[in-house]
Amino acid sequence: MSRSAGLAHIVRQNDGTSTGVWGVYTIKSAFQPVFAFGEGKLSIAAFEGLVRPFRDGTGLSPYAFFRSIPPIDRFHVETLMRTLHLLNAAACLDPKVSIFVNFDPSLFTDAEVVDVAIRDMRLVLHEAGMHPGRIVCEVTEQKSASSGALHRFVDALRASGFKIAVDDYGADDSDIQRIDELKPDIVKFDAQWITRLMDSGAGFGLLKVMVSRFADNGIETVFEGIEEMWQLELAEESGASMVQGFVLARPELAPTSFSIFSAAHAPGGPDPSWSGGGAMPVRETDDAPPQSRHQPAARRPTFGRRQSGR
Predict the structure, then answer these.
(1) Per residue in 165-193, pLDDT tens?
(2) Which of 6, 120, 150, 166 stands 20 to 30 A from 229 (CA)?
(3) Which of 141, 147, 51, 53 shows the shortest CA–CA distance to 104?
(4) How many domains does the chain contain in total?
(5) Backbone angles phi, psi at 164, to 5 degrees
């Protein structure tokens, strides 16, 4: 098979992980778990790959890094990041869980570019020994240049065996009709939107209706940005399939310690599920919403599970 463009910028490390090199930048993978509800427990169902750029050994915010990349290079840098996440996931994460990787749909309006990206990903998966069915391709509906281009891109990903997730649903100009047309496997709700809706009984009722509507269509839901225990309780009560957020676990650089929660049972080994009791190892990152850092916990709304006595 021909060589992936992303692999040309990869440096293998002695611990089995990989780093990326782009000009003066060193790029590392961080992974944040996505937890699924089931039988009164939370278990790790997936990980999202997140970029951690460094320059001269100093960490930079992902936002500052992306701003420094010229438009002509963005497709190649995004390819490198996906390559890095897939290789590191194969090296240090439970092979049974899914891996979320991000795509900017605005880069994939041309059929030839789409073909190149998918071919490159399949080469990387072959190198890593991973099946396409483990990969969840996150796309944001708002960033696409056109509805038709977004549909063609999603159809091409699905035809290659990848799962589809629509990210940041509820932000900006999200469109329920577009979700119906795209038919994703998963919808990830925007963190700020979830927080606003959870602040009132009417908003929480709307969340429950939307989760139920998606479930009726075979679509799983992820609530992002869960930072307080009361939000976690309401997420479960709403019927959400999965949750992701700092109240459960912060992203960790590869190699992570999350394998102690998601590894298969072994003699004397840990339980693969985690019910939320106790802190997981954390590392301060730029993924934290600025308004939430170092602030006291928000007071829980006066509706929901405890208020009703259940």
Answers:
(1) 999 998 766 678 889 889 999 999 999 99
(2) 166
(3) 141
(4) 1
(5) -120, 135
